[in-house]
Amino acid sequence: MYNIVVGGGKVGYYLTKQLLEEGHEVLLIERNPEKASSVADTFGAVVLTGDGAEAVTLAAAGAARADVVIAVTGEDEDNLVVCQTARQKFHVGKTIARVNNPKNEQLFRMLGVDVTVSQTNHILHLIEQSIPDRPFLHLLSLRHADLAMVEARITDESVVAHKAIGEIDLPVDCVIAAISRGNHVTVPSPATELLPGDDVIAVTRVDQEDELRRLLCTDC
Amino acid sequence: MRVVVMGCGRVGARVASNLAHNGHDVAVVDTDPRAFRRLPPEFPGDTIIGTGIDEDVLRSAGIDSATVFIAVTNGDNRNIMAAQVARMIFEVPEVICRIYDPVREDTYRRLGLTTVCPTTTVSAMILDHVIGATPRRGLED
Fold first, then answer.
1. C-beta separation of B29 from B39 below 8 A
2. Would A95 be classed as within a structural domain?
3. Last residue of a domain, one of A104, A122, A140
4. What's the CA dihedral at B12, B15, B20, B23 to 10 degrees?
């Protein structure tokens, strides 16, 4: 698989390294000649110096035969134009953009970028997950399906504590996928009873998330 | 008519003050507050500090009610992104975007943006002066 990575900062560097280690063909495009040559010193002839938002550079990189173009510069506007140029002029099948301002994720997808990665959001989620005693956590969004995965902690006071899953009136399109109890994670059946201390992992439609939160985290 | 101008460089300041002078309701957006010194002291419009690729900044510039959005910062990509935000998110009827790179200009004109490319325009004018004395056929080939 031929990948073009645009932007030779930290993200671009480690991404190139990883893709090369996995045996993929990679070309990294970096605008700054010094940065480009220092990356070339490490990885060899897989670096092209130039502006990845310029069609001439992408043409020189062989974008027409690229399977994926990944734009990971620190500027959202550059990442957007790289992906749009790759798609419009070179008909690249898949474009991936790093999004620095989380608000731009939706916009980028509206404008034809296939995949957006917001590291700001990822870091926020990771921090959120490591804060202890948070009763309800958003773990991840399954973007294309409009689904979210959440985790909820059952306490002594929870309305649903000591109830079998089959007895709980869950919102529509919402399922309890796993229960983490002590050191074990189990896939529950309708007969499984929720106990205080359980971490419940549920898959839900995004617009039902608040309702599920109320159900699982309301105290009696 | 509400007009939002992004970028208060020589072109942005001139366009903004001209439109304001002609009675239009103008807001100018620039990341650098010093750029607003290019506007005449009697400029009646709004000046907003911030980047025009941020929806919230555009909103505070009154883009919701704008008829025209003009993107004239120094960065092609910034202009392109802001123009698409204005068109797709805020549905501004007339969006004008300056793009220096002729190839990029061509791509985004095809995608439906109203574009202005100083590189081709100025080159053509210079060539016109240089070759103007000779038969014009030479230029059109």
1. no
2. yes
3. A122
4. -150
* Domains located in chain B, CATH noted: 2-140 (3.40.50.720)
Same domain for A93 and A196, yes or no, is: no
> Which residues does chain B have within 8 Å of residue A76's beta carbon, measured at their own beta carbons?
53, 81
Structure tokens at B117: 């490319």
Q: Say if the Cβ atoms of A76 and B85 lie within 8 Å.
A: no
Which amino acid belongs to residue A58? L
What is the token pair recorded at A195?
């106990």
Residue A127 in domain = no
Residues A75, A148, single domain; the answer is: no
Query: Which pTM was predicted?
Result: 0.76
Size of interface A-B (CB pairs under 8 A): 52
ipTM of the complex: 0.85
pLDDT digits (tens, 9 = 90+) for A21-76: 999 999 999 999 999 999 999 998 899 999 999 999 999 999 999 999 999 999 99
In a domain, A115, yes or no: yes
The CA-to-CA distance between both ends of chain B, in Å, stands at 41
The domain total for chain A is 2
In terms of residue numbers, what domain contains A107?
Answer: 2-122
Strand partners, A175: A203
Chain B residues lying within 8 Å of A77, measured CB to CB: 53, 75, 77-78, 80-82
- Express each pLDDT in A118-138 by its tens digit: 887 777 777 777 776 667 777
- Best A56, A58, A80, A81 residue to mutate vs chain B (most B CBs within 10 Å): A81
